[in-house]
Design a protein that fits this description.
Residues 10-139 form the VOC domain. The protein has 141 residues and is of the alpha+beta class. The chain contains three helices and ten strands. The strands form two sheets. The protein has a six-stranded mixed sheet. A four-stranded mixed sheet has the order 1-4-3-2. The longest helix is centred in the N-terminal third of the chain and has 11 residues, at 23-33.
């Protein structure tokens, strides 16, 4: 018996859910600012796919606290991604706390998961139209 036979979650697919108080506003932000269009929709929800993964924006009466990263996107070139999004009006978070500081919206992060074969990561964070804190990361090899 394999570990996957004992744990059905080991074979589960992961899909992020992000709350939106105004789904139309969120749709416009994701389309006009991030360049992403939903691949499917249902009443109260929009489904997006990026490189074989997916996330959903759903109509919610609750607001995101925006105090932690709710979804992260791994990119090949974070400087190019940050530059392109800044041109589209995205404002990146600037962080200056002990051991962690962004410069021009990008942080150098020590260490990475050994299975990713990287020695570190570069990261950047911004908020969507609904206050969700989104991150981008680029492994440093």
């Amino acid at each position: 018996m394999s570990a996957d036979d004992r744990n059905p979650l080991a074979l589960a697919r992961v899909s992020t859910r992000l709350p939106a108080q105004d789904l139309d506003r969120a749709r416009r932000f994701y389309a006009e600012t991030l360049g992403l269009e939903p691949v499917d929709e249902r009443p109260g929800g929009l489904l997006y796919r990026c490189a074989g993964t997916e996330f959903v924006l759903f109509k919610s009466t609750g607001a995101s606290p925006g105090t932690f990263t709710q979804m992260a996107l791994e990119v090949d070139d974070i400087e190019a991604a940050v530059s392109a999004l800044k041109q589209r009006g995205v404002v990146f978070e600037e962080v200056d706390v002990p051991g962690f500081r962004t410069k021009d919206g990008i942080a150098e992060i020590e260490g990475n998961y050994p299975s990713k074969g990287a020695r570190g990561e570069r990261g950047a964070w911004f908020r969507d139209s609904e206050g969700n804190l989104l991150g981008m990361g680029e492994p440093v090899v």
